[in-house]
Amino acid sequence: MDRSINVFQNNAPDLSVEGMLLDIDKFSVHDGPGIRTTIFLKGCPLSCVWCHSPESQSVKSEIIYQNERCTGCWLCLGVCPEKALSKSDNIDQSIVVLNRDSCTACGLCLEVCFPKALRSAGRITTVAEVISIIEKDKLFFQSSGGGMTLSGGEPARQAEFSYNLLLACQDLGIHTALETTGYARWQVISALAEVTDLLLYDVKFINSRNHRELTGVPNQMILKNLELLVKEGHEVQVRVPCIPGINDSAQQLEDIAATVADMGVANIVLLPYNSAAGAKYEWIDKEYGLAQRDSQDEKYMLSLSDICHAKGLKVTVGG
Q: Which of 55, 148, 249, 293 has the smallest count of CB within 10 Å of its CB?
C-alpha cells in the first residue's frame, strides 16, 4: 500500500484512506504508557511459529469458527452461496464444517449465527471511522498519560493507512505508539516513525538463520532499521517475545541485549510466553506447532532480566 513515498508527505491526514482492520482493544495497559486504545491491523510478512494472533497474518478478511459456541441450528448452511458449510459427521469434533477452499468470506453466515460461533477476522474501515472511536477515549489518555497504539499484524504492511491514522492522532494531540516487526523498507519505517511518539520494536533473534527458520524471513533489514531509528533519535523500546526452547536461552538473550545496547537502545521489555494462542489456530483450521509448552516462571524471567541489566539496559518484564 506504499504506492508512492508521496503518501507519507501529507500536511494533513487523509481520513478517507481505507485499511483492513482486525480488532480494537480499549483500555489496554500493556501496549505503551498509560491507558491506551490499541488498533490491530491485518497482514504480516512474518509467519512466526509462536504467533499469538495467527488470524492477523493474512491481509484478507477470513472467517473464524469456534465450534464450542455452535448450537446446531443449521441456519448458516442455508445462506452460504458457495455451500462451504456442511454438517459434521463427528459431532464430538465440530457441529459445522467449514470448507475454506470454497469460502469467499462473504459474511452472510455471520448474519444468522446468533451464538457468534462464526465471526469475521478483518473488515475494511477508514481512518475517519477509527479516529472517531479513538477520540472517545481522549479523557482517559489525558488522565493516564496514555494514547493510541497501532499494532498488527504489521502496520507497515498497510503503510498508507497507518501513516494517516498516526498523523491524525498526533494532530489531535493524542500520544502515538507503533508496535512493529521492523520488516519493511527503510523509507516506510522512517516515515511511520516521524508520526510516532514511541516505537515498540520486536527483536526475536540476532542469528539471521534462526530468524528465517522460525519467522519465515531474515533479520538483516530489521536490525538495520532499528540501528537507523536509534541514530535518528526516535524513542525506541525493544520488545523480546521469550519463547521456551526457541529464543529464551541465556546466550540468546545476552546476544540480543549486547546488540541493541551497542546500538544505543536504552529500554528493553521481556515478554513471557503466552500459551493461550493455541485455541486461535483451531479457529482458522491451522496447526499450532508449540503445543504443550508452558510460560516461564518468575525466577527464570528475572534471570533473563539480570542478563539485560548487565548490558546497561533498563528492563521491564511483561507488557
A: 249
